[in-house]
Write the structure tokens for this entry.
Amino acid sequence: MGMTFSNIHLKKNSKCNEINLKKYFIEKMDLVGYNEVSEFKEADYIFMINTTKESDWISIDSNYFDMDSVENSQELLQTLSSKFKTDCIAVSCVNSDFMMLNWINSEENFDAWINIEKPYGGRYIRKTDFFIWKKKIKKIFAFWYNIIKSHIANAEGAWYTICDLINIDKEKSIFDSRYYIEYPDREENRKLNAIYFRMKNYGGI
């Protein structure tokens, strides 16, 4: 069985750091009726924030996010990019068979897309002009060659290539809130920086 994951990645800057992201999610969830709680077992929703000191990016995931459609994913990226004045990437991989990546910077009006293979029985969801990537990737031809070469065996290989080019820690960039919910005590999950939320007045109290 192949790899399946959906994550969002924000480029670090003076506004975009782990502390400000956590503060933002706490404030946002409070507005929609959820309090932060300390115990995973009490939570309705979980937000995971993952990075290293060496990485230029912060990776996040949550079972609160709705990334089942291109429109929802883009709306989330636009919101985060506008809030933190930074580059945001959404990447989804299904069973190692295909991968979709959207890179947005709302301040720069940058919106680029990569498809690795096609959804089952479907068409490419979006296409982006090849040269738009020169705004973000200097070695554009090497970039595309390596992506095409790397996804022959599996779609996530293209993501690993991108991680190397833009300095995202590969091992820290792929995780799944659904997996965390199912196996919260596993060592790799206990290392994640997680925030838990429960609906206010839970249980009618």
About this structure: DSSP finds seven helices and eight strands in the chain.
